[in-house]
Amino acid sequence: MAESNSLAVQIVPVSQVSVVNPRIRNKKSFRELVENIAALGLKKPITVTRREEQQGVRYDLVCGQGRLEAFMELGASEIPALVIEASVEDCMVKSLVENCARRQHHAIDLLHDIGGMKQRGYTDPEIAKKTGLSLEYVRGVGRLLAQGEQRLLRAVEAGHIPVSVAVQIADADDIGIQEALHQAYERNLLRGRKLMIVKRIVESRRRRGRAIRGRGPKEASQKLSSRTLLRAYKEDTDRKRLLIRKADATRNRLLFIAHAMRELFGDERFVSLLKAEKLDSVPKKLLGRMERGDVG
User: Fold this and answer.
1) DSSP per residue over 180-195, as a string?
2) Which of 4-8, 148-152, 155-159 has the largest mean confidence?
3) 115/197 same-domain check
4) Which spans of this chain does the record mark as coiled coil (predicted)?
């Protein structure tokens, strides 16, 4: 942030810092942050704004919730901080912008950050200007958020699919989705591995819905219902039936090939021609089936 260039670092009591824009943290990432700070110390101060209350001085956190909570986890009573002048509203916006500008943010972060700015009345151009994101990106994410398209949002954030294509998919039926994928391929937006990933995401979205359900113990137990088990059983049965059909089709093709090859190798002129062209070798397994007259 620009303020950090001209402000001196101050030491503030941890107990006097309030988090005005709280976030849910990934436990593994938070544990790594705590261990890193414990081993190497704090590399970047948190940013706060000072306010006076009847009980005394308080600080509103602008950015650095993870670092603050890591210090609290380590039992520290004070933390280095940059103290800036800002209103509560400015603190909220700066916190949202900070989260949006992080190099690795996830769909859930966009739900919290861009969605939070829209709820506070900011227009798409204003959000784009404050975050440094393109207007097309902000508008696309806004539409995906409004429609609850968490799977597509995650794909956008991971770089698997352009936001414009994700919006097309969100607004289309099955036929329209295939057309959107075809157009993306023709425009060289989705090729190779990315196209395969997006097809899997589209299929998962069709079968499981637009939202990504939580995996906490409570939610996991709630999802374990007779209806869910029946659906999982049906999906597994359908997959196995498909495998059986593919196996039967392969067996029939192999039977046809073995029969055709056996007939051809019964023709001496054909065998002589193969020998002349040095094409008379046959894989052992195929030769064995030809001799047995089956595919077993």
Assistant:
1) HHHHHHHTTSS-HHHH
2) 148-152
3) yes
4) none
